[in-house]
């Protein structure tokens, strides 16, 4: 069948739309956080806490930014999402962590930092009136990997470099365009085979790294999982969420897979996009309608 003479034009328009979306996410400064708080000794061990105007105790959404685990991307670009969630009644704890290119970044500290930031909410709960019975984690892209991983820590063996005792219980994990299968992501060559840089080698060289850090290999986790992914994502193919969801069901978990028709990579964190409303509604349904009884 002959291609439509307009197909090339449509691709140009779609590429321009996606580029504009990414530009808006990265170029517009978010509202400032209420307080920036260190959670560890490294200069990059800090988080931005935003608090609702309402009386607490506040449900909490841990927010983990993406950027293929690389140092050039910071938590600033996901600040609009954090501010929007807080405007809708949820405290947000947007965390920074050591990344590839930072001193100490990559295996194992990238993961350990996110775990430490999550558990640090125990230290903040009284002063900031946080409800530790209603804590969920959301992450985008590489942050989606970390969001799924941090909800899986109770599955990590004690002899692992990533083991942390008594991880904070979470009511849900919400990966957005998450890199949920590190082996497959490496095979796909995502972002110039960046998974190899994160893990310190290929699976054949560091098999235990992949076993302990790839969310799909830690299933089942017994924590509700909401996987939100654009069907037209050019950076992290939706197939990664599908693979994870299928394996989760095979192992006994019941993940919710939410495909966003026509969405690319950044629409899920762009608060001005129509697809972002789906993300917000999923978070609100988990944290504001949850029966505490």
Taken as a percent bin, the fraction of beta residues is: 15-25%
Order of the strands making up the biggest sheet? 1-2-4-3-5-6
**Helix count from the secondary structure assignment:** 10
**What gyration radius follows from the Cα positions, in whole Å?**
18 Å
* Uncertain stretches of 5 or more adjacent residues: none
Oligomer: single chain
- Give, in order, the helices and strands: HEEEHEHHEHEHHHEHEH
Share of helix, binned: 25-40%
The overall average pLDDT, rounded, is 92
Structural class: alpha/beta
| Number of E-type strands | 8
Q: Give the distance, in angstroms, between the N- and C-terminal Cα atoms.
A: 60 Å
Judging from the principal axes of the Cα atoms, what is the shape?
globular
Major sheet attributes: 6 strands, mixed
Structure description:
- The chain is α/β, with parallel strands linked by helices.
- It contains ten helices and eight strands.
- The chain is globular and about 50 Å long.
- The model has no long low-confidence stretch (mean pLDDT 92).
SSE map:
Elements: H1 7-27, E1 35-38, E2 46-50, E3 58-64, H2 79-87, E4 91-95, H3 109-119, H4 121-128, E5 130-140, H5 142-150, E6 172-176, H6 182-188, H7 190-199, H8 207-213, E7 226-230, H9 239-251, E8 256-260, H10 276-287
Parallel strand pairs: 3-4, 3-5, 5-6, 7-8
Antiparallel strand pairs: 1-2, 2-4
Helix pairs in contact: 6-7
